[in-house]
Every structure is written in structure tokens, then in C-alpha cells.
Amino acid sequence: GAVVSQHPSRVICKSGTSVKIECRSLDFQATTMFWYRQFPKKSLMLMATSNEGSKATYEQGVEKDKFLINHASLTLSTLTVTSAHPEDSSFYICSAGKLTLGNEQFFGPGTRLTVL
Amino acid sequence: AQSVTQLGSHVSVSEGALVLLRCNYSSSVPPYLFWYVQYPNQGLQLLLKYTTGATLVKGINGFEAEFKKSETSFHLTKPSAHMSDAAEYFCAVSAGGTSYGKLTFGQGTILTVHP
User: Fold this and answer.
1) How far is CA A100 from the centre of its chain?
2) What is the pLDDT of residue A21?
3) Which of residues 95-114 of B touch A (CB under 8 A)?
4) Is B103's CB within 8 Å of A93's CB?
């Protein structure tokens, strides 16, 4: 149980285009979803926290107009990287949590974004 | 505010040897502590967690960790390393309560296992 999927697993796009990444909780309804960014050989940095039906809360230094997060349902959150640039290339990981499942996040497999 | 420090970005052991990955944390409230493992180009898998209760926590794949409040530590150990343990390991802290779920990660420790 508590499986989280991400789609796509890899995406390559041209500079200036927008890319959408989906995060789904497959077998539970997630109270909260989190988006992380992982640079090569670095730790995970929390980008934003989103609750279903409300606006995402972004961490300091994360551009909310650049990284659009939508959490339309209890099983789906999307991260859209708008007007992507090569410096946005990274590994993006989502996680989902539910209070009744304890203070634990369940992580997706990640999405490797490469911007040319 | 919380923070996590993992001592040693790389640890190398021989197969069959003891694995010890160090983690120290700072938290203004009682912490929830986690160890995750990450294989290349994959997401994170939970190894074990401490929330309340017994301070020695056993996880998957033979790993365990002990919460020591006086030392603000949560070191990860495994008595005998296996080749399949080679991966990157992350320690994380969550404040729980009203900060439910928000994790702060350490820098990660890459474990190499030699035959």
C-alpha cells in the first residue's frame, strides 16, 4: 500500500517551453503532497507543500510563478515548470502524506528533467 | 527550525563488515526522525523511522537506528554489509504536529560496499 507514481519518468524539452509533471497517490487519498528538487550529488530541497483544494505553500527562494503547483484532487498534484531553462534541469521528486498513515511521506520515483 | 547533519558524505566498507552512518539533528520540538535509501535515478525508500516510544528502531533490510536525545543523534547501523546495500542514504527530521510531514534532509551519505 501507499504507492506514489510520477509521470513522466524522464523528459527532455527545449528552452522556453513548459513541462508538466504529474504525481499520483495510487492507493490512498493524500492529505498533503510535497515537491522536492534534487541537484546532482546533493540532498533533496523542499520546493513547496500543497493541500488539496488550496494554494501551495512555497519555500523561501522558490519562484511560484516559475514552478506552478496544482493539487486538484486528493490523488493528483501537478508541477509545471514554466518557460524552462537549462538551469531548471534537475531531478524532481514528489511525495504524498496522510495524517491517518502517520507522520510519513511516501515518495514517487522521481522525474528527470533535462532542458536543452 | 530543524536541521540535519550527516557526518561523512562517503562511507566505504567491506562486505560483511559493520555499517555505521551518522546523523545528528537539531529541532526545537520533539523530532520525528527518518532514514531513507535512494538508488540511482530512483525515488526514496523508507528504511525506518522514529516517532515516539522505543528508541531503538528496526527497519527493513537488517538496518536499525537508535534515537539518543542527549546526543541529538540517530545513527544508522547494520551488522553485516551486503553488496546490495550500496546506495545513498538520507537522514531526515520532521517536527510533526502542526508541521506534519515537512521534512528536512541531511546532505546524504553514499555507501560503497567492497567485495
Assistant:
1) 22
2) 97
3) 96, 100-108
4) no
